[in-house]
Design a protein that fits this description.
The protein is mainly alpha-helical and 253 residues long. The protein has one domain. It is built from 9 helices and no strands. Helix 1 crosses helix 7, helix 3 packs antiparallel against helix 5 and helix 7 packs across helix 8.
């Protein structure tokens, strides 16, 4: 049994994920549970690729619920800056859960961290991107030189945030979505999910749309380079520029 055999393809799985994510962002947890309950009960009757995606969904949302409770503890025992960094670090929890699910199905979850394919025969190496990123980080450090603690926390935050978000959206989810929808739908839906994930953080719909558009660019980079380091470095650059320009405020102190 699989909806693909009925001509529906796997679009229903991608749509189910987006609906569930929006419900989570809105705090409609009861409706979220009701939405995913029936597909989860029917898991044994689906094809392997559908089962893998549904179990990955379960692992992801279970990780998000753990983050909600862990945040309360972190905010209670840590300073604002440290708490913010730990919050972003906690987003590795659903990534680890999704990696575990992938291993149970003998499927890879995260793409390569080696040298990007598009740079194999070019003079411009990945080291140049890294140097640019470090330059931006040092620029932020110089701007915050009057407060050493804030400067160091800001640099750590940018690194942790970029790595965790790329591992989750361009690593785990882009891989799972590519398996069921192909590269184009995967780039679109992973970017849409990335943008929607900022709703709970208080960002406006227009800001979330902007994040989604940037997510499409990151996703295309992964598809082009077959590598996750490139979008991680560019994510660091974008975060650095947004913070330096004042478009995003990061309350670290």
């Amino acid at each position: 049994m699989d909806l693909q055999e009925c001509g529906g393809g796997y679009m229903w799985l991608l749509s189910l994920f987006m609906a569930a994510l929006l419900m989570f962002q809105a705090g409609a947890f009861t409706f979220l549970f009701m939405l995913v309950l029936v597909p989860l009960l029917l898991i044994p009757f689906f094809k392997e690729v559908s089962r893998l995606f549904l179990w990955s969904m379960l692992a992801y949302f279970f990780g998000l619920f753990l983050i909600l409770y862990a945040d309360r503890i972190v905010n209670f025992i840590a300073s604002p800056g440290t708490a913010l960094i730990l919050n972003r670090l906690l987003f590795l929890v659903p990534v680890l859960f999704m990696i575990y699910v992938g291993r149970r199905f003998s499927k890879r979850t995260i793409v390569s961290f080696g040298k990007p394919e598009c740079m194999q025969n070019k003079k411009t190496s990945f080291a140049s991107l890294l140097m640019i990123s470090l330059f931006i980080l040092m620029a932020i450090y110089s701007m915050a030189a009057s407060n050493l603690e804030a400067a160091l926390l800001l640099i750590v935050y940018i690194i942790v945030n970029s790595v965790s978000e790329e591992l989750l959206w361009r690593g785990a989810w882009l891989t799972r979505m590519t398996e069921i929808g192909g590269p184009h739908l995967a780039v679109f839906f992973s970017a849409a999910g990335y943008g929607a994930s900022f709703l709970m953080l208080g960002f406006s719909a227009s800001a979330c749309l902007g994040f989604a558009i940037v997510g499409i660019f990151y996703g295309l980079l992964v598809m082009k380079t077959k590598n996750l380091l490139v979008p991680i470095v560019l994510h660091m650059l974008v975060d650095s520029c947004l913070i330096a320009s004042g478009l995003i405020s990061v309350p670290l102190i």
